[in-house]
Amino acid sequence: MHPPEIDEVDPKHSTNEVDPEVAPDISEEERLARQLSSHKDRIKKTKYATRKNLVLVNTGIGKGKTTAAFGMLVRAWGQGMDVCMLQFIKAKTANWGEEKAARKIDIEMIQLGDGFTWLSEDIEKDKELARTGWKLCKEKILSGKYDLIVLDELTYILKYGWLDWNEVKETLDNRPNRTHVAITGRYAPPELIEYADLVTEMTEIKHPYHANIKAQKGIEF
Amino acid sequence: MHPPEIDEVDPKHSTNEVDPEVAPDISEEERLARQLSSHKDRIKKTKYATRKNLVLVNTGIGKGKTTAAFGMLVRAWGQGMDVCMLQFIKAKTANWGEEKAARKIDIEMIQLGDGFTWLSEDIEKDKELARTGWKLCKEKILSGKYDLIVLDELTYILKYGWLDWNEVKETLDNRPNRTHVAITGRYAPPELIEYADLVTEMTEIKHPYHANIKAQKGIEF
Fold first, then answer.
1. Which residue, A16, A155, B54, B142, shows the most beta carbons closer than 10 Å to its own?
2. Closest CA in chain A for residue B83
3. A198-206 and B198-206: which strand pairing?
4. Crossing angle (nearest 10°) for helices B28-46 and A123-142
5. GO molecular function, one example (chains A, B) (predicted)?
6. Which of A163-177, B8-22, B37-51 has the highest mean predicted lDDT (pLDDT)?
């Protein structure tokens, strides 16, 4: 296994890979054999697959939406790409681990919010912040300067109706070929799910909060 | 909103936050008011909450398991913590974005695998690699040198029976107080889910592979 081959195919994804949960009866050898053949099929198929700029969405009520987007950002940065993250909800004054890390390695990360929007007691101010924030996102997306832009927690702005989906769609439609856009947040609207190329839902199975354990530095923030 | 308050509570998590999907009838103002009150309750509660070292699991067949763990690793590194990632399946010779990024910022990342285990044509060799890999994980976990250790794709080794859960459990039981451990991979065994403090399932809603689009640099690897 070497990088060019990895380039051809996403090895973790398979439509006909044999899931041991689904097919517990076959032997391990048989499963491995089938997986190998399925993998080879996919390599063959993807030789003719198209490259395109993607819209990716991390949604759901579980953890890891922002963290996975941040991980992707750092990874793309590792590949020498031009990246940027715009965060809608987090306050400018907070000092999150992401921010600290981004500062250390000089990744562009911009906080557009003024605290947690849903905690505000002045909705009009939040709407205005959201509109101003979106303007900057639009500029960045259309600038042609980025390979990957993360719009962190944009979904809330859409959900609350402070920004119209058609405006987002138009910007995404007109973005340069090189620019992938990743959007995170709960309640991704159906139009966005429909539009996106890749959608992952994070579901919470278990959370330490239930066991009365505090949010911890380096883990939650 | 300032860091000490964030420290007190995970603002994204709530057990009684009002989900607009579930309660569409209440007004936006009412929802915000209830969320604010729920948030204040939680801050109060968590004042008495306990800090402890956590075991976190990212599982499910969707994307973002490794990426979210990697994001958490970089974030913890941003907080000045000592971190390390050990990867079971990825080959030493591959040149992934995570690796490149980790090298650039001097985060310890160790590949224990020799290619994709489930693609191997020599199962005995894979078993041996898994056993040797686990030994190193155990040393790192018990060393007391780390705040966060990610065991990437350890679940497969457990699933295939190449490593006994009780051995993992014993190591986790005996780990130093400072050490959080995050484990990623499909098919997390029930014992691990039961043992873990936080479990997130990543579900694939949509994948560009289905639209015959190639895996892309900076996005998938």
1. A155
2. A218
3. antiparallel
4. 90
5. ATP binding
6. A163-177
Which one, of B83, B88, B76, lies nearest residue B151 by Cα? B88
Report the length, in residues, of chain A.
221
First to last CA, chain B: 35
Q: Do B10 and A209 touch (CB under 8 A)?
A: yes
Per-residue pLDDT of chain A (221 residues; tens, 9 = 90+): 233 222 333 434 433 444 555 555 666 666 666 666 665 565 454 444 456 899 999 999 998 999 999 999 999 999 999 999 999 876 655 567 888 899 888 899 998 876 545 555 677 877 888 899 999 999 999 999 999 999 999 999 999 888 999 999 999 999 999 999 999 999 999 999 999 999 999 998 877 655 556 677 777 77
Residue from the list A120, A198, A207 with its beta carbon closest to the beta carbon of B13: A207
Report the C-alpha gap between A71 and B58 in whole angstroms. Answer: 14
Interface test with B, best of A2, A5, A12 (most B CBs within 10 A): A12
* Whole-number Cα distances in Å, B197 to A210, A215, A217: 9, 12, 16
Rounded CA separation B35/A186 (Å): 15
| B210 CB-near residues (< 8 Å, 6+ apart) | A15
Q: Is the pLDDT of residue B155 over 90?
A: yes
Q: Tell me, what DSSP letter sits at residue A118?
A: G
List of E strands, chain A: 55-59, 83-91, 108-113, 148-152, 180-184, 198-206
Asked if A61 and A187 count as a contact pair (C-beta separation under 8 A), the reply is no
Using the Cβ of B16 and the Cβ atoms of chain A, whether some distance falls under 8 Å is answered with no
- State whether residue B200 sits within 8 Å of chain A by CB: yes
How far apart are the C-alpha atoms of A11 and A42, rounded to whole Å?
9
